[in-house]
Amino acid sequence: MLSDFHSNDDILSTSFGSFAKKFNVFSILAKCGAKKLRGVSVSVVFAYLFSIAFKHTTVNRDQKGRKNPQAVGKDCVHRFLQSPRIDWNRFTALLAAAIIRLEFKPIYEKSSDKVANRRCLVIDDSSFKRNRSKKVELLATCFDHAHHVFFRGFRMLTLGYTDGQSFLPVAQCAMSTGNEEMRINDASEVEDGTPGHTRRQMAQKKATESMLDLIDCAKDAGIEASYVLFDSWFSSPAQVTAVLEKGYDVVCMVKKGKTKYACADGVKRDVSKIFRSSKKRRGMSKYLLSQVVSITDGQGREHEVKLVFVRNRSNSKDFLVLLSTDISLDEQEIIALYGNRWSIEVFFKNCKSQLRLEKGNQSLNYDEISAHIALVFTQYMMLSHLRRFNTDERSIGELFLAMVEEMKDAAFDNAMELILYLFIDKVAQAEPQLQQRLYELADLFISTLPDLMRDQLRRAS
Question: Quick check: 346 and 167 in contact, CB under 8 A?
Answer without folding.
Answer: yes
